[in-house]
Design brief:
heterodimer; A: 127 residues; alpha/beta; Rossmann fold; 5-stranded parallel β-sheet; globular; B: 427 residues; alpha+beta; Heat Shock Protein 90; 11% strand
Chain lengths: 127, 427
């Protein structure tokens, strides 16, 4: 079975260690494969170079420079055909960001702090 | 002779006048020789009195006018005492001398009259002067009353003004505190975000560690010690991360407390780069929390060689925060007016130049118009709408940098292109 490629976008670098450890078993069992980008721009660069590789994008909203919402708009409206699944993660679980992200075509939402067991449940459904 | 003069002589003069008048009358009526003599002698006595008594000094000149005539009369009368030829000759001579005496008398009277007139003039003048002097004194007294009133008024006003100064100082202190609290308010959301992130990491990593310990136990039972070692190393690394993020949250809370602290803090060796970075993040997240659509690029260029610098950290932090908040506000303004092809960017950098440390905060916003350039450091000057800015941010920043740290706060700008604030601190 091919490992599902997930692109995680967050300006906090320790998010990489956290995901790699949280999904330790899944990574070892080759169920998932994580790629990390630390800004919206970096994420777009990756996607442009590796089209159709990532099936799921987990993005923070609150980032300096290109925000998660701008990244979402790019992915859903301009670049990807068919676009990958995009899950938005935000520290502000407020209606405004939620609605904007929904309008822009976000597929799902997670609030910080990320509930990893909930995330794993959601991933199982997608896989 | 004025009535009322010489009061103690009044009575004597009266009797004297009666006596002289009586003698004169007797002399006319009886023509007795001895009465004539008594008359002469009494006249001479009067003269003597006038001559000797100081009180009659003004009458002396009149006396000198009559004296030759009287003396000649007396001498002439004396010539009648004998009947010699030389006496007759003498009498004729005296008769001639009497003519001169009369001329003398008239001349004297004229002179005395003139003198009296002159004297009277002088007296009138003196009187007039005294009158003027009195008026002046009355005026002076009135003025003194006025001056006293005005002085009292001024003293009262001075006291009132001093009271106002005290009140103004209290208000100023309150304003400074409310400016601090206002900027703290701007920071609150940023602080919440900044604390939430490290706390998430602390929670997540400790949960991961609990899982890892479970896995490690399984691997120990399997005897797979290579894997056990790897897991142990991960646990160790995670502990370091938990510690790192715990300290990060701790520093933010301490910074927040310092930011709201009253009074002037002490100078202490401070990592300026960390301070600038911290406030950049806090300002960014604070604005993001207020305005969801807000975003900007943040570029930093920190000189790693600056080391620790002796400053009051919460004060310099406040200056940096203020400059960064202004920069964000500026690029946001520009973006709201010219959204197309505009990439809002904030640039924060530090640099060590010999004895100076430079902290630059620049933005590619609308710049500062020339007409307000010399006002931007004035208290209460703000270009923000009423209620949005206190107008104290830059003036407080200026005071902190110049008065508090002996540095300089410089500004470079080009309208429509950029604004750059430079904090120069002596090292």
């Amino acid at each position: 079975m091919h490992a599902m490629k997930i692109l995680v976008v967050d300006d906090e670098r320790d998010i990489q260690t956290l995901f790699e450890q949280r999904f330790r078993r899944e990574i070892r069992e080759n169920l998932v494969n994580f790629v990390f980008a630390f800004s919206g721009e970096e994420a777009l660069n990756y996607l442009n170079g590796h089209e159709h590789e990532a099936v799921l994008i987990l993005s923070d909203i609150n980032m300096p420079g290109m925000s998660g919402l701008e990244l979402l708009a790019h992915i859903k409206q301009k670049y990807m055909k068919p676009p990958p699944v995009v899950m938005m993660i935000t520290a502000y679980g407020d209606a405004e960001n939620f609605n904007t992200a929904k309008q822009l075509g976000a597929d799902d939402f997670l609030t910080k702090p990320v509930d990893f067991s909930l995330l794993k449940e959601k991933l199982k459904i997608i896989i | 002779m004025q009535s009322g003069a010489w009061p103690e002589w009044q009575q004597n003069i009266k009797y004297g006048l009666i006596a002289i008048a009586a003698l004169f009358a007797l002399d006319i009526i009886f023509d007795w020789n001895f009465i004539t003599w008594a008359w002469y002698i009494s006249l001479l006595v009067v003269f003597y009195i006038i001559y000797r008594i100081e009180d009659f000094v003004r009458l002396r000149s009149l006396m000198y006018a009559f004296l030759p005539l009287i003396l000649l009369e007396v001498l002439q009368e004396a010539t009648h005492l004998g009947n010699w030829k030389w006496l007759n000759d003498l009498e004729n001579g005296l008769e001639n001398a009497k003519a001169f005496a009369i001329i003398w008398l008239v001349a004297m009277i004229v002179i005395i009259t003139r003198q009296n007139k002159a004297l009277k003039k002088v007296e009138l003048k003196t009187l007039h002067e005294e009158h003027l002097k009195q008026i002046a004194e009355t005026k002076k007294a009135e003025l003194e009353v006025l001056v006293a009133e005005r002085t009292a008024e001024l003293t009262k006003q001075k006291e009132e003004l001093q009271q106002i100064v005290v009140e103004l100082k209290a208000t100023q202190a309150q304003l400074i505190q409310s400016e601090k609290m206002a900027s703290l308010g701007e920071l609150t959301a940023g602080i919440a975000h900044e604390i939430q992130n490290p706390l998430n990491f602390v929670n997540n990593f400790s949960e991961v560690n609990a899982e890892l310990i479970g896995e490690m136990e399984q691997e120990i039972e399997k005897g797979n010690y290579e894997e056990v070692k790897a897991i142990a190393q991960d646990i160790k690394d995670n502990e370091a991360k938990i510690n790192h993020h715990g300290k990060r949250a701790d520093a933010i809370v301490k910074g927040m407390l310092q930011h709201s602290r009253l009074g002037s803090g002490m100078k202490e060796p401070t990592d300026i780069n960390a301070l600038a970075d911290e406030y950049l993040r806090l300002a960014y997240h604070g604005l993001r929390a207020k305005d969801k659509s807000f975003n900007a690029n943040m570029k930093t260029d920190f000189d790693v060689h600056i080391g620790n610098v002796n400053v009051v950290p919460q004060d310099i932090g406040r200056v940096i925060l203020n400059l960064i908040t202004n920069a964000f506000y500026a690029v946001n303004e520009k973006k709201s007016h010219h959204p197309e092809n505009y990439d809002p960017t904030i640039f924060v950098s530090t640099k060590k130049l010999n004895d100076w440390l430079e902290i630059k905060v620049a933005d590619n916003g609308p710049g500062i118009p020339k007409k307000v350039m010399d006002k931007i450091f004035q208290p209460f000057f703000t270009t923000k709408p009423t209620g949005e800015g206190t107008g104290l941010g830059l003036s407080m920043s200026y005071d902190i940098v110049t008065k508090g740290h002996g540095g300089q706060l410089l500004v470079k700008t080009k309208e429509g292109e950029f604004a750059e604030f430079i904090i120069k601190l002596p090292v």
